[in-house]
DNA sequence: CGAATTTTAACGAACGTTCGTCAGTTATCT
DNA sequence: AGATAACTGACGAACGTTCGTTAAAATTCG
């Protein structure tokens, strides 16, 4: 399907240059066609963007949900650290994640509403699952006894900070060190 | 000085729409002049942008350095939590910070090198000071005995995650909860 | 002091370029 | 043959930028 090639190229340029900075000419050139031919597949720039956005959302969502449905151990240390590694792997092999991050926090103004809706949808689902997990571990006496929302938010914070370091991403060693540091302190801060 | 009005308006539009999405027409209109008049004060769009960038850098740097030179107590809990509050205050009353954050992580491609240089300069200075502080607290037995870089990186991670939440910024209560959660877990994870 | 001169800051008009988009035509492929 | 998807050509609008000009403010000089 040629539409997928277009979306792939669009993803690349939207990620690097943002919505306003990405031009249909560049995207078309990457695929090996003229920019007008894109209109045989999409209604226009917005339509193309929103399609890429939804693909990115699905990648993001299913990867995360699948991880937590797969692992079901009573080993929070392994599960949580594994999730951090999943994020790192996803980010490095899948351009969708960087695109998703950029558009989550700096969306094109005229599409902010549509984007925020999708972002909040994921955010909420992940938070709910994470909170349930933590509640289970608290009940099992595996981590400190407190409101489940506390380790949930703290962990989401660790995830965010690692994603930022991934975006920054010009120093592999620094990334490893920051992950190790954040994880060490976080785990000490919640383990019973 | 009219130049400052221009820079102020430019800061606003660069922050909201990014480099590519901000137009000189809009910026000029905000100040009450035509876009051509901007060229009496700046060589062009790049020159205007880099001037705004350097202002933002100075605000960012002096605020942070000043905080750590002012407080010199043996109370890391107070100092560190105060720093988080400083970040939040700065962000909410000063548009420079959001601009700085956006351009740090998603710079316009053709200015990436110049921007990265400025960003790394701040990053490094803050890290050095923070690491010295932590070393002092470790030596005084106030926090866990380990390599000073560990709490430093972990704390920088907390700062980053809070800044992201500030950018996201559509839920004041959620911000407070995330700050509280991250801080609680972090502090428990490093306090002796 | 007052006149002459330079500097500053704004302007309208226009430049060449690129943007996203639409219409009509040709080529490809079942 | 008919449908799909590519093409060429053209559109108005906006972009950043340069030009020449004007009016006012600041500076220099007789």
Short description:
Helices cover 78% and strands 0% of the residues of chain A. The first copy, chain A, is built from eight helices and no strands. The first copy, chain A, starts with a helix and ends with a helix.
Comma- or semicolon-separated keywords:
homodimer, 192 residues, mainly alpha, Tetracycline Repressor, domain 2, 8 helices, 78% helix, elongated, DNA-binding
Notes on the protein architecture:
Two copies of one chain form a homodimer. In chain A, helix 1 (2-21) packs parallel to helix 5 (95-105), helix 3 packs parallel to helix 6 (112-139) and helix 4 (76-93) packs across helix 5 (95-105). Chain A has one domain (54-190): Tetracycline Repressor, domain 2. The first copy, chain A, is built from eight helices and no strands. The longest helix of chain A is centred in the middle third of the chain and has 28 residues, at 112-139. The first copy, chain A, has 192 residues and is mostly helical. The radius of gyration of chain A is 19 Å and the shape is elongated. Chain A binds chain B through residues 16-21, 102, 104-106, 108-109, 116, 144, 149-154, 156-158, 160-162, 164-165, 167-168, 170, 177-178, 180-182, 184-190, and chain B through 16-21, 102, 104-106, 108-109, 116, 144, 149-154, 156-158, 160-162, 164-165, 167-168, 170, 177-178, 180-182, 184-190. The structure holds a DNA duplex (30 and 30 nucleotides).
